[in-house]
């Protein structure tokens, strides 16, 4: 079945790049789902998808889409059932796991079998057990329309959200405007005095406005860090374009290597970085920013510095310098290995 088209008419060619289109799409906030099914061998299959929407109440229909080149396309195209699991705010790690390649997505994961034995993941805010009703090929994706046979929900649960290339959760850090310099509560309350919480509040304050500048360039936070690191590397080592091995880049941008490998491949397609062979080791891939990547990095760095100046305007230069030195010292420190072993959480009973 093919969708209807206006007779004798066609769309004008786009006047934007794929990266611009992705950035514009990223401004639409969505929930996050994991779509699951079973292959012919009965093994569970699943992937992270935010392209989910309702179609009809009577009959109950929903849709989602999958890239034509996806490795799991045959499973979903040929199967009779699949399940759409809407993730909760505390399931970001699960969303990242099912979006990554080369990992065991199902290791230690709790689930039950739904219609057609499609896995229903534990802890989700809602699940939709769907009959594979119809499919439509459009562009580089296939649109799946599912007829919902059963659905469940957790009324008081908070969903995981996705916007501008990053995840959002309902968390006290996002809404708090509390003064981080306030003294510790006399009753010894934890929140508001714990270092990790305070650093989280500070990070949110720094990125609260700057994240819009990142999203406007069609970048995720990790992609922004990649360009910033490559920008600095080019300044330090102009003789070899500031190229960095993927493994080292992953360490510097605080992300896992498979995630960064996939990201820089997409950034290369967008013309922001180039992937080079390491002359000293052909098995390694080096990453360098292109002229466009350096241009975007320089513009964002200028905005970041301007925002930093505003944030620290109430501090003296000495205080601001001391703050950065203490944070650098903290970031470069490693706690004793034995410390974790000394921490015991009492169990009830």
What is this structure's SSE topology?
Layout: H1 18-25, E1 30-31, E2 33-38, E3 44-49, E4 52-56, E5 61-67, H2 73-78, E6 81-86, H3 92-99, E7 111-113, E8 119-121, E9 126-138, E10 141-153, E11 161-163, E12 166-168, H4 172-175, H5 195-216, H6 221-236, E13 244-245, H7 246-252, H8 257-269, E14 273-278, E15 281-289, H9 291-311, H10 317-331, H11 338-342
Antiparallel strand pairs: 1-11, 2-3, 2-6, 4-5, 5-10, 6-9, 7-8, 9-10, 11-12, 13-15, 14-15
Helix pairs in contact: 5-9, 6-9, 7-8
How many angstroms separate the termini? 61 Å
Average pLDDT figure: 83
Read across the widest sheet, the strand sequence of neighbours is 3-2-6-9-10-5-4
Class by SSE composition: alpha+beta
- CATH fold annotation of the largest domain: Pnp Oxidase, Chain A
Helical proportion? Answer: 25-40%
Radius of gyration: 24 Å
Largest sheet: 7 strands, antiparallel
* CATH homologous superfamily descriptor of the largest domain: Electron Transport, Fmn-binding Protein, Chain A
How many helices? 11
Report the principal-axis shape: globular
Number of domains: 2
The total strand number stands at: 15
CATH architectural group of the largest domain: Roll
Poorly predicted runs of 5 or more residues: 171-186, 338-349
Which sequence of SSEs, written as H and E, runs from N to C? Answer: HEEEEEHEHEEEEEEHHHEHHEEHHH
